[in-house]
């Protein structure tokens, strides 16, 4: 299974490549007044406003630092109602694509962060999957993605 590897702080994480729409350079974001700290801002993607969250803050760490290889990972996000949205993830030090043997994936057994999934080990250490559909709390989802009827 192909995965996009990146860092949150010193630790390696991955997204399934099928969840990734695009990898973008760090762009200037429009700040959202009164938004939770984890919301880095809004970006314009071909005329569509897309919320961007700082995955370091979502993981309970210090805000992500900007590096030469910091990127915005544009992913498919599916809410519990099945509605599909684009969501940007501000990710430190994107490493590239790796092929991980699905047989090497194991349940982490850790439930502290519901968006963290299975783990695998390789010569560089442990890598843990991020599940985009589990990233947002109901409160944050309500702030970022208004129902269609309310948006009009």
From TrEMBL:
SUPFAM superfamilies given for it?
CheW-like (SSF50341)
**Which ranges carry the CheW-like domain?**
1-141
One Pfam entry name: CheW
Extract the SMART domains matched here.
CheW
- Per its UniProt entry, which superkingdom is the organism in? Bacteria
Q: GO cellular component terms?
A: cytosol
User: Quick one: a GO biological-process term for this protein?
Assistant: chemotaxis
Q: Which InterPro entries match?
A: CheW, CheW-like_dom_sf, CheW-lke_dom
Indicate what this protein is called per its UniProt record. Answer: Chemotaxis protein CheW
Which organism encodes this protein?
Answer: Rugamonas brunnea
